[in-house]
Specification:
Elements (H helix, E strand, L loop, with lengths): L8 H35 L2 H15 L6 H19 L9 H20 L4 H13 L4 H22 L3 H14 L3 H21 L13 H14 L3 H14 L4 H10 L4
Helix pairs in contact: 1-2, 1-3, 2-3, 3-4, 3-5, 4-5, 5-6, 5-7, 6-7, 7-8, 7-9, 8-9, 9-10, 9-11, 10-11
């Protein structure tokens, strides 16, 4: 008669202890990385973003990394891309921008494999897929993915300010006429209201709220495109009150302040 192999109680206990220790260590790395990301966002510093990415990458390298780990790593990589894109002389096709974009796409795709209802992941992926479009052929190739991610973002996060902001920014970039810019304005104004409601609630030590200042910058750009320079300047000033080193807001204010 064959004997069953039974894991001794001591062995089971050790397994549970080591598993629990790994989970606690992973959560600790994520919390530390989120705090570092919050500081990097405020300073908009490439080295600070890299430090945050390195911290969360340690948690992502562990077995059974959670959806939250991949979410935050993707958020950081998304902002590494935006930070590099904001540098003078940079464009969507700059190699470093492409490198961070592709890393973020891979990471956020993993996040969705763990949690298909991650609205912010869908919104960021839709944004980055949109950055790949540079003509009719690429539009045909990536268009369905862009629409799918935007639809899923709204389905699972219609009241999420970052979802509405990224949707409005995408509309701004693709607007070709007054109706297009007004549609962008509507989404961005919705995001602004949601951000202001969110800001009334405590964020918590291990949370990082991002996007409010960028939303205000896009509101300024959209009002500027609609010919409302005074309103545009007001939004650029408001963005600078949130993040004083926002170069997009500074540039926008230079363009519009003379008319106010």
């Amino acid at each position: 008669m064959k004997r069953r192999i039974v894991l001794p109680l001591s062995g089971l206990a050790l397994f549970l202890v080591f598993s629990g220790t790994a989970l606690v260590a992973s959560a600790s790395e994520v919390n530390k990385g989120v705090r570092e990301f919050r500081e990097a966002y405020a300073s908009w510093n490439a080295d600070a973003f890299a430090q945050a990415a390195g911290t969360v990458s340690k948690a992502a390298a562990s077995d059974g990394a959670s959806a939250e780990v991949y979410h935050w790593l993707g958020v950081i990589q998304f902002h590494q891309m935006l930070q590099k894109r904001s540098e003078s002389g940079s464009s969507a096709s700059t190699p470093a921008v492409v490198k961070f974009r592709e890393a973020a796409i891979e990471t956020l795709t993993r996040a969705l494999q763990k949690d298909a209802k991650d609205a912010e992941a869908h919104a960021m992926l839709g944004t980055m897929m949109g950055m790949k479009v540079d003509g009719m052929l690429s539009g045909l190739r990536f268009g369905p993915s862009i629409s799918r991610h935007q639809d899923q973002a709204l389905a699972h996060g219609t009241d999420n300010p970052r979802v509405q902001y990224l949707l409005g920014a995408a509309k701004y970039h693709t607007a070709k006429d007054k109706d297009g810019f007004e549609s962008a304005l509507k989404s961005l104004q919705t995001a602004e209201r949601l951000f202001e409601t969110e800001n009334k609630e405590p964020a918590g030590e291990e949370n990082a709220r991002w996007g409010y200042d960028a939303c205000l910058v896009f509101l300024g750009r959209t009002e500027e495109a609609l010919g409302n320079r005074e309103k545009a300047a007001g939004y650029f000033r408001k963005a600078l009150s949130v993040r004083p080193n926002d170069d997009g807001a500074k540039e926008g204010l230079k363009r519009t302040a003379s008319s106010t």
